[in-house]
């Protein structure tokens, strides 16, 4: 149901320093999501919901009353909606479905029983909640007592569902806890006229689950004008004042009852957004035709993507759809199809702050085959510094493997003290909570480098069985100045001296990671065995955000990963080993000709080299 993604074709490297105008690819995904993605794909193949995936769907079903209306009842659209949700649960990663009330038109025993029978098709296949709308019960608030609705849709219906946690004593209000995106979420399903006693019950539920983000569902909360601008109804104002605004956990409140659909954003007492939405299509063709709305939570991208469509009409033969069916299949207006930008960690920080991991010792993050590991905290430096203070020339960063591949600091050209400073900034998943801030540039060239000594063991390593090179970097925002082709890491030595003849220039380093003018990462390597220069190109990487870069070679070919995701433009050329020539390994710049050009501009964190190909799960595991 989502719009097709568009990809821009990218051309292969022609000249190392050419200012070719390459099209910009999409932004990088959030760091360290690959294991969850892999689990998600496997779960989708099995047709099962994956609670670890950073992406999941909350399905919302509004007023179905015209489908259960005395002798004109037709449950077919709803049955098809349920069939669709069950069939797509694994592929779309659907966590839960919630109905917003007015299940039936008159609330008679016959209508209620027909609706209840239809909902039974979901049992054991998809957990859900249902709440009473004004058409489902005769009158009064949730203290009204017994009703046909309560007999069919009361607590007993949900007891076998893994998400069900309890109900108010009257039975008309329930709450559910679902596990999705590796965390728990609370769904409150409240009667259309919740009493003061019911509000106290709901508050008790929130108090008992103080760290869970909550979605409040009810029948009557807001109404909208024809432009889709919503405002609280009288009942919505009562809920807002007595429950929502004082509970920062409630970030999304959903209701039906009124049409047209609409939405608004309110600010609660914690000065955070609460999204209030109306979803109701009973005025549309065929009583809404079993229309469902999906809320696609994407914690990797920090958005909720909302779509509205009728599975019943979608299932029809396109050639046989009537005009009304064709125009009702999917709704694409601003109130029906939209995205909400939400920084989930920031939004939930007031009640469920993310606890950053503690620094981890080097011994915990050195898998088998680690030949060098550098970090810039006190454990890794002989001259640890205060954040913001210059790193002195001659300062040593120890190789924590004990293999003797220590790095020594020097500055390029006439660069001053600020070319390299200590920093406490770091990737949230980085083992060491420190980094180096490089202030490199050109015209004139400036910067700083960290290089192994002439006799370091790493200089002679050929990596014939494969390798994994990793680093954490962050580019400044704004990304000011000319930093085209700045070097990030490399081995000294010219490929021409290694006898390579097919590269762009014999003066090009035998191995280097660089940044193009368009902020594409470029990893070019001259293999030990082949006369070739296989090159990997990333997308345009973001600024102002930490990234994990991994360059993985299995002895045959090389693949670049950015934040655990394999990039598209990896070469198919054979690539065995690295023609290192016995020259030093360098962080912070790339040697070209007889000199180092402009230095790196940004932050650099932990850097590790392993003499074998690590799997995605292996190279991310120590950092999670």
Task: Report on the architecture of this protein.
The chain is of the alpha+beta class. The strands form six sheets. Strands 17, 20, 21, 23, 28, 29, 30 and 34 form an eight-stranded antiparallel β-sheet that branches. The longest helix has 13 residues, at 34-46. The radius of gyration is 30 Å and the shape is elongated. Residues 1-46 have low confidence and may be disordered.
Class from secondary-structure proportions: alpha+beta
- Tell me, rounded to a whole number, the average pLDDT: 90
Output the number of helix runs: 11
Cα gyration radius (Å) = 30 Å
Strand residue content:
25-35%
> What fraction, in percent, of the residue positions are helical?
10-25%
Could you tell me how far the N terminus lies from the C terminus, measured between alpha carbons in angstroms?
Answer: 33 Å
State the gist of this model:
With 624 residues, the chain is α+β, with helices and mostly antiparallel strands. Helices cover 14% and strands 28% of the residues.
List the helices and strands and how they pair.
Elements: H1 34-46, E1 55-61, H2 76-87, H3 89-92, E2 94-99, H4 109-119, E3 128-129, H5 148-153, E4 164-167, E5 174-180, E6 183-189, H6 196-208, E7 214-217, E8 222-224, E9 230-232, H7 234-244, E10 250-255, E11 262-267, E12 273-278, E13 292-298, E14 303-309, H8 311-314, H9 323-328, E15 330-331, E16 338-341, H10 344-347, E17 370-374, E18 396-397, E19 407-411, E20 420-423, E21 435-439, E22 448-452, E23 467-474, E24 486-494, E25 509-515, E26 520-525, E27 535-540, E28 546-553, E29 558-562, E30 565-566, E31 585-587, E32 591-592, E33 595-596, E34 601-610, H11 616-620
Parallel strand pairs: 1-2, 2-3, 6-7, 7-10, 10-12
Antiparallel strand pairs: 1-13, 4-5, 5-6, 8-9, 11-12, 13-14, 14-15, 14-16, 17-34, 18-19, 19-22, 20-21, 21-34, 22-31, 23-28, 23-34, 24-25, 24-31, 25-26, 26-27, 28-29, 29-30, 32-33
């Amino acid at each position: 149901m989502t719009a097709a993604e568009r990809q821009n074709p990218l051309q292969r490297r022609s000249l190392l320093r050419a200012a070719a105008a390459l099209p910009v690819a999409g932004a990088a995904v959030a760091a360290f999501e690959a294991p969850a993605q892999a689990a998600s794909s496997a779960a989708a193949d099995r047709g099962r919901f994956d609670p670890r995936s950073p992406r999941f769907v909350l399905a919302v079903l509004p007023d179905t009353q015209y489908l259960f209306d005395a002798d004109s009842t037709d449950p077919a659209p709803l049955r098809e909606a349920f069939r669709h949700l069950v069939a797509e649960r694994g592929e779309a990663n659907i966590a839960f479905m919630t109905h917003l009330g007015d299940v039936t038109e008159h609330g008679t025993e016959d209508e209620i029983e027909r609706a209840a029978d239809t909902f039974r098709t979901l049992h054991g296949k998809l957990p859900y909640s249902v709440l009473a709308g004004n058409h489902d019960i005769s009158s009064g608030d949730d203290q009204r007592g017994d009703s046909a609705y309560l007999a069919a849709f009361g607590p007993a219906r949900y007891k076998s569902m893994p998400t069900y946690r309890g109900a108010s004593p009257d039975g008309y209000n329930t709450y559910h806890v679902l596990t999705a995106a590796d965390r728990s979420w609370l769904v409150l399903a409240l009667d259309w006229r919740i009493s003061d006693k019911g509000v106290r019950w709901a508050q008790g539920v929130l108090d008992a689950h103080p760290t869970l983000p909550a979605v409040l569902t009810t029948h009557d909360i807001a109404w909208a004008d024809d432009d889709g601008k919503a405002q609280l109804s009288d009942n919505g104002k009562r809920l807002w004042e007595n429950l929502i605004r004082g509970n920062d956990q409630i970030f999304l409140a959903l209701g039906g009852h009124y049409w047209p659909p609409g939405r608004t954003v309110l600010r609660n007492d914690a000065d955070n957004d609460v999204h209030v939405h109306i979803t109701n299509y009973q005025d549309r063709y065929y009583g809404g035709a079993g229309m469902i709305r999906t809320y696609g939570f994407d914690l990797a991208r920090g958005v909720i993507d909302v779509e509205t469509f009728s599975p019943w009409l979608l299932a029809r033969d396109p050639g046989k759809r009537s005009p009304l069916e064709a125009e009702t299949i999917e709704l694409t207006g601003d109130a029906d199809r939209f995205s909400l930008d939400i920084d989930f960690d920031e939004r939930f920080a007031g009640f469920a702050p993310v606890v950053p991991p503690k620094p981890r010792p080097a011994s915990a993050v050195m898998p088998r085959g680690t030949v060098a590991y550098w970090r810039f905290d006190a454990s890794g430096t002989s001259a640890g510094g205060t954040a913001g203070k210059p790193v002195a020339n001659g300062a040593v960063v120890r190789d924590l493997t004990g293999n003797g591949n220590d790095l020594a600091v020097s500055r390029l050209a006439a660069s001053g003290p600020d070319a390299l400073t200590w920093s406490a900034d770091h990737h949230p998943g980085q083992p060491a909570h420190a980094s180096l801030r490089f202030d490199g540039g050109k015209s004139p060239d400036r910067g700083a480098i960290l290089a192994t000594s002439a006799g370091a063991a790493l200089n002679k390593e050929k990596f014939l069985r494969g390798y994994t090179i990793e680093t954490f970097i962050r580019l400044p925002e704004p990304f000011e100045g000319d930093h085209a082709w700045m070097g990030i890491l490399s081995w000294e030595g010219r490929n021409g001296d290694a006898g390579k003849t097919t590269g762009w220039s014999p003066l090009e380093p035998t191995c280097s990671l660089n940044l193009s003018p368009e902020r594409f990462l470029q990893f070019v390597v001259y293999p030990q065995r082949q006369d070739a220069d296989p090159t990997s190109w990333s997308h345009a990487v973001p600024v102002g955000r930490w990234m994990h870069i991994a360059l993985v070679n299995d002895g045959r070919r090389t693949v670049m990963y950015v934040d655990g995701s394999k990039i598209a433009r990896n070469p198919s050329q054979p690539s065995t080993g690295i023609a290192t020539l016995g020259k030093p390994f360098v962080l912070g710049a790339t040697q070209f000709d007889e000199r180092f050009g402009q230095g790196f501009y940004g932050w650099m964190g932990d850097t590790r080299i392993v003499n074998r190909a690590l799997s995605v799960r292996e190279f991310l595991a120590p950092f999670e």
